[in-house]
Amino acid sequence: MSNTNKPIDLAHSLSLFNDLWSPKRVATLNDYDIKIAKVSDSFVWHSHKDTDELFLVLSGTLTIQFHPGDGGNVVLGPNQLFIVPKGVEHCPRTENGEEVSILLVEPKGVVNTGEVTDAKLTNAVKDI
Amino acid sequence: MSNTNKPIDLAHSLSLFNDLWSPKRVATLNDYDIKIAKVSDSFVWHSHKDTDELFLVLSGTLTIQFHPGDGGNVVLGPNQLFIVPKGVEHCPRTENGEEVSILLVEPKGVVNTGEVTDAKLTNAVKDI
């Protein structure tokens, strides 16, 4: 263990960056990453063929869009979470350009855009 | 997927039970459980030999005690998290009988008291 245990303060971690749709790793749990991100407007439709994906909203309102037949869109406010099942296409978005802060839990190595490559949006996770 | 996607509202889920030190599963992420619990006073010293354990405080203040040489106690307030590394003995507690709400992420099947069996405190996870 480290010499001095310190809490990970999500508000502080969020204050350290401003780029959007670019997850930052705040901790690891076995072979999973605990990540935070700031998001605004619409992401890209994508799926993760090998893993579920946990979204927990820390501030603001996030809509996770699904295709018809996949259960309908989910609207998440603070302290609301949703697990996107593996293989299910989804597209997160926010309304009216709101900036929303989220926490994500996924296995290490998962790319935010899944099977899709998007020059603007595909970002490898970075430590913070 | 379910016919109707619904957010998991942690405040609502917390309103559905009052028992202490008895984790409730609100979701699963691959082979991991996403759990919430209400805790008060002191738990039992224990470790989880095969897994890290994520604590995220939702309300109140949680102290996670560690033995000397293991980095010192961690005090977590709302929206602060800590990962207890696998194999490290720890004992969560709250001060002055405060009731604290926490979110836990662990592989399925992890028992809250780890290698220790305590008639009052050992609780299998339940769905909520």
UniProtKB/TrEMBL annotation, chains A, B:
- Domain Cupin type-2 stretches: 41-105
One Pfam family from the record: Cupin_2
Q: Which SUPFAM superfamilies match?
A: RmlC-like cupins (SSF51182)
Q: What is this protein called?
A: Cupin type-2 domain-containing protein
Name the source organism. Answer: Piloderma croceum (strain F 1598)
